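Tutorial handout. Part one gives the primary structure; part two gives the three-dimensional structure as tokens.
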Amino acid sequence: MTIDATDRTIIEALQSGLPLVPAPYAQVAKELGLTEDDLTTRLAAMKESGVIRRIAAAPNHYKLGMTANGMTVWNVEDASLARIGPKIGALPFVTHCYERPRALPDWPYNLFAMVHGSSREEVEEKRLQIVDLLGDALIASDTLYSTRILKKTGLRLRKKGG
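Part two.
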């Protein structure tokens, strides 16, 4: 699917988030000169085609008390990765889970899972649940804890002419 000028305008309007009002899609549609149905239909088509992946809330885990954040890294048997990875990604305390190539000899890890908790002890308890899921497929692991907050944003389109 290619996007037209209206789709691009919708993406630009929503890339910083929805307005915090009772009817955010209606407000955005009005600002863009569209009906709410047209806006949501176009968003659904862009999602279906893969132009956009999702529209979701992005809570600030620090403000929710989740101040111990550990990127757990795992060296998992390659043959088990496709079977086990989705199970780890489905855990309620894992917010990101993905496969990455190893960078041998220094970095043997091929599976990453971000775990949030209110303390390092809580993250460790959750990490042990992942250990149980991995079973015999686990070769090695580590946890890398956040030391500072970096601003995170998704892809941003530049406004045409800007």
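Part three, for discussion. Residues 10 and 32 are 8 Å apart (CA to CA). The helical segments are 5-14, 24-32, 36-49, 78-89, 120-134.
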